[in-house]
Design goal:
This protein is α+β, with helices and mostly antiparallel strands and about 200 residues long. It is about 45% helix and about 20% strand. The longest helix has 15 residues, at about 120-130.
Amino acid sequence: MIGRLRGEIVHRQPPFLMLEVNGVGYELEAPMSTFYNLPTGSEQVILFTHLAVRDDAHVLYGFSSESERTLFRTLLRVSGVGAKMALAILSGMSAADFARCVQTEDIAALVRLPGIGRKTAERLIVEMRDRLDRLDGVSDTTRTASAKGSAGAVSPVSDAVGALIALGYKPVEASRMVRAVDSEGLNSEEIIRGALKAVAK
C-alpha cells in the first residue's frame, strides 16, 4: 500500500496531477481542495495517498492533509458513494463545511454537488453523523487558496470546464458555471474555485 509520496509536481490538470519521486512519475487524482494548497514552484510536496484497486485499473488518489484522506476513505464506506463522488464532495466544499452540513442536516447544500440527489444526501447525513465524531481534525480542516500556476497550451477556461466535467458536472452546466466567473487574469484552478464557491452559495 502506498500511503505517502514526497516529490515534485511535473504536471497538473485538475483533477489529475503527476508527482515525480526519485525519477518515477506517479499519476494521481486529487480533489480541488488539494490543488488549492499545492505550491506553484518546483519545491517538494508531500501528498497522503489512497490506492484503489479495481478490476480494470489501480488508481492512486492524493490529498494535501491526512484528515482529507481520512474523510475520503470514510465517504467510500457510505452505501452508493464511490471515489468520483467522494472527490466531488471534497472539491465542492471543505471538510469543515461538509461536517457542518451533516451535523445540521443541510440537505440543500449537499444536493448542489454533482451526482448527489436527495436520497444520497439523506444517506450521507445518516451514515456520516456518527463517523464524523471519530474523525480527528475533519471538522477543523479549512481550505486555503495558494495556487497561482502558469497556464499551459490549453486556455485556463477550457481547463476549468474539463476539470468540472471530470468532477461529475454535465458539460453544459460546467460551461455555465465557468462563464459566471470573471476569469480574466485567473489560472484554471482559481476559475474552478470561483465556480465551485458560486454554486455552493
